[in-house]
Design goal:
14 helices, globular
Length: 328
Amino acid sequence: MAVTSKRSKYFDNAKFILIFLVVFGHLISPLKEQDGILFTLYTVIFLFHMPAFIFISGYFAKGFRKKGYITKTIKRILIPYFIFQIIYSIFYFLIGKEERLTFDFLHPHWTLWFLLSFFFWILLLFVFARLSWIGFALALVLGIVIGYVDNVGSFLSLSRTFVFFPYFSLGYLLNGNQLKQVVRGKYSLPAGMVIMIATMLFFGSSFPKDAVPWLLGDTSYENMGGVDWFDGFIRAFQYGVTLIVVFGFLALIPSTQYKLTKIGERTLYVYLFHGFIIKLLQAVLPDESLPFISGNYLLLIVLSFIICITLGSYVIKKYTRPLVELEV
């Protein structure tokens, strides 16, 4: 596994699978309450897919101190956030999701929280990276403490920024050899299989439906059902479980080059554009069709796959690159 190469097939494979899970998770979100299997898949996906994505993002942020890195981040992350915030505002108004056309840059639309939080994570590294593993421990503490702040939420994506920052920090701290020892060890593959199967079984039989907001990290403990002194310990336990599942997932990722591996390089395009397709489908499909759709697992999988390979294609990148990366 060439984890230190400029373009690692291992990470591209991981990112393709993760972006498929992002699309599939968002597609089944409004259907999960009608089907126990979909609810299990949804909760397992949301337990680890964004933490894993964020961990990989942190791993590739090791050059954040290099000259021009912040300028590049502003160009590739922050400016597209403002552009797509405007586009989503217009889109939501046109499909009737919003009654008035307003432009609010302080509360990210749906998936755009990741762009804003990513920019903040890079800024946080300038402080936390100097502290090394103490910084990681401090990130965990902040991720726990932020939940006790009643008003924290989607404003500037502050809740998710601090809740998910430990994964970004850990990805930054681990070097290629350390990561290889964990995900390519002698028993890593069977351990990864056991972890993922055990997670599916547990979430399918024991995960409470009212605990879903804990997986999203977008609000305070108070807004998730009332604050208790032990809520911080629950989030600490969640961090531990999530990290185990993340590394169980990474242990299963192959390093072989596939035709779909290339899409792992274009996950940003899939991430930014898939919301338009899913929200449009939700707007036009009648409620009477939901029971049929929720029970047709193959349809949901195939549709998610088609969305990924279409939005991750070279053609989409070619014609939308000026919008996404501000490059012709």
